[in-house]
């Protein structure tokens, strides 16, 4: 029996239909869900990512505001722009595209985003609230992974989960989200000793280390759940998925697994922020 493919592309398409309907309902109440994207400089990859996010907004009928700042923008200038968006009641979500130019204090700017508009899940306060089980917008990639797992009715309670990667918007929140679902979580990274032995004992593996095919298929035990959150120019992820259908019980393909869920979760959380504004 071959492994279950966790199809993020299909789930995101289903979700978009639902989001469209909810956006239409808000528009009838004179609320236009709006995402502001901030791009500093002219990094080609960042420009592509921002364009994809704005295109998704357009598909579901949401408004997007493109804030484009020059390469030489200072931390203070960026903070002023973020504050303007915080104060704009017509903006429901704020996304500061990573990375920013080196002269900018990125963490300070992330944390300046109003937690109620932190739909990308990048603030320390949002991370803390999410970790403590308090209502917060999760970082979009791990939150998208959790949505994918739940859609396919995979119960992670009691599983030995290994997260390979420790970034503030992927590995760390992923570990906390799995812990909140009662998995037993180990966090590894590129400097972890005997990492192959640790992974061989995993019931669920999340590859989030940012290195192409870092995790070898020979390290993965039979019937494990395999989540690959990486994507590289070589059109592969962080896990060697060759023959994975004969090893895993479930897996995310690359592309078409985790990636579509990331942008979809950003759009969904912007919608949720707009819906909350109606309640206030």
Question: What features would you highlight for this structure?
Answer:
single chain; 280 residues; alpha/beta; Rossmann fold; 2 domains; six-stranded parallel β-sheet; three-stranded parallel β-sheet; 41% helix; globular
Outline the fold blueprint:
Elements: E1 4-5, H1 8-28, E2 34-40, H2 44-60, E3 63-69, H3 75-87, E4 93-96, H4 106-112, H5 124-131, H6 140-151, E5 160-164, H7 171-180, E6 184-188, H8 195-200, E7 204-207, E8 225-228, E9 250-251, H9 258-279
Parallel strand pairs: 1-9, 2-3, 2-4, 5-6, 5-7, 7-8, 8-9
Helix pairs in contact: 1-9, 2-9, 3-4, 6-7, 6-9
Report on this model:
The structure is a single chain. With about 280 residues, the chain is α/β, with parallel strands linked by helices. The protein has two domains: about 30-115, Rossmann fold, CATH 3.40.50; about 140-260, 3-Layer(aba) Sandwich (Rossmann fold). About 40% of the residues lie in helices and about 15% in strands. The protein has helices at about 10-30, 45-60, 75-85, 105-110, 125-130, 140-150, 170-180, 195-200, 260-280, and strands at about 5, 35-40, 65-70, 95, 160-165, 185-190, 205, 225-230, 250. The strands form two sheets. It has a six-stranded parallel β-sheet. Strands 3-2-4 form a three-stranded parallel β-sheet, with helices on both faces. Helix 7 (about 170-180) links the parallel strand 5 (about 160-165) and strand 6. Helix 3 (about 75-85) packs parallel to helix 4 (about 105-110). It starts with a strand and ends with a helix.
């Amino acid at each position: 029996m071959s492994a279950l493919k966790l199809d993020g592309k299909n789930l995101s398409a289903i979700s978009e239909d639902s989001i469209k309907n909810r956006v239409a309902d808000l528009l009838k109440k004179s609320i236009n869900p709006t995402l502001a994207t901030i791009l500093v400089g002219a990094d080609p990859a960042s420009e592509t990512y921002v364009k994809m996010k704005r295109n998704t907004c357009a598909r579901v009928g949401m408004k997007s505001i493109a804030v484009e700042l020059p390469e030489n923008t200072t931390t203070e200038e960026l903070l002023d722009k973020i504050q303007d968006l915080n104060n704009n009641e017509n903006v429901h979500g704020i996304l500061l595209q990573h990375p920013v130019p080196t002269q900018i204090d990125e963490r300070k700017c992330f944390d300046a985003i109003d937690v109620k508009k932190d739909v990308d899940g990048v603030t320390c306060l949002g991370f803390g609230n999410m970790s403590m089980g308090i209502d917060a917008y999760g970082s979009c990639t791990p939150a998208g992974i959790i949505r994918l797992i739940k859609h396919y009715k995979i119960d992670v309670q009691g599983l030995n989960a290994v997260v390979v990667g420790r970034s503030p918007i992927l590995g760390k929140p992923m570990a906390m989200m799995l812990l909140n679902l009662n998995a037993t979580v180990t966090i590894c990274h590129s400097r972890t000793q005997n990492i192959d032995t640790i992974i061989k004992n995993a019931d669920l593996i999340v590859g989030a280390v940012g290195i192409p095919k870092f995790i070898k298929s020979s390290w993965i035990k039979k019937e494990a759940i395999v989540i690959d959150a990486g994507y590289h120019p070589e059109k592969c992820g962080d896990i060697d998925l060759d023959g994975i259908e004969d090893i895993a019980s479930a897996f995310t393909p690359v592309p078409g697994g985790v990636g579509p869920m990331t942008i979809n979760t950003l759009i969904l959380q912007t919608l949720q922020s707009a819906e909350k504004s109606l309640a206030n």
